[in-house]
Amino acid sequence: MVNESPDVPPRRRPGRRLRPTRRGRLVLLIGAVLVLAVAAAVLVPLLTREPKSQQATRTLVIPEGWRASQVYAAADKTLGEPAGTTKKAVATADLPLPPEAKGNPEGYLFPATYPITSATTPKSLLRYMVDTALERFGADHITAGAQRNGVTVYQTVTIASIVQAEADTVSDMGKVARVIHNRLARGMPLQMDSTLNYAMNRSTLDTTTGDTKIDSPYNSYEHKGLPPTPIGNPGEQAMVAAISPTRGSWLYFVTVAPGDTRFTDDYAEQQRNVAEFNRNRRNAGNG
Question: Is residue 32 within a helix (H) or strand (E), and if so which, with residue range?
């Protein structure tokens, strides 16, 4: 038999359970209530708070080449505003446009994906777009390219907007820009259908002789030089083409079929290409 030290408490008898006193039971009950209350206080905000992944998930996508009218309509729809609200906001938005723009943001509503929150307004959205354009178009290589070509940055944006509208593919952009620069250098009218489409608020490949006679400063068949404003909102690739056009002597081009744009400096060849384009259009219509 081993003697136990007097400092060691006696062992419990087998099968005997420790029972809390009345005071102990009261303390345990109060503690349990406090734990449940704290858990509820933490749980309720977690259940009622909107998950971060669902906050500000809306976006507005502005494709390259969209006109201001298209941007305004898309902004109204996304913001839930009555038609015409964003267009009216231009007058009081205090947009930091270049003086040449005369308050018209065409060309400076930069194509991008914009986040939309409950705090977004037509004015704040317009400023966001213009600020983005100024940041991109104010880059040193854009300024240097414009100076190298003997035009202003605003005129470069106008050229880029025509390039964006006319080029069938990205690879054609540099050549289209070269045709524009070559025609401007020779004092030739640009004769771009895209400027007529802008004047007539349409998009079509079919231009009639009557169309080329309309009275509009955007009629590049009747008026030499660039139109008074950009005819859309160009993207980065069109701007690069405008400041660094492909080397060449081309004066004419026509897209005779998708992916097949013909460039030439010979008028007779251009006429043959246009005839092929017209044949393809007729055949497509008959099909």
Answer: helix 22-48
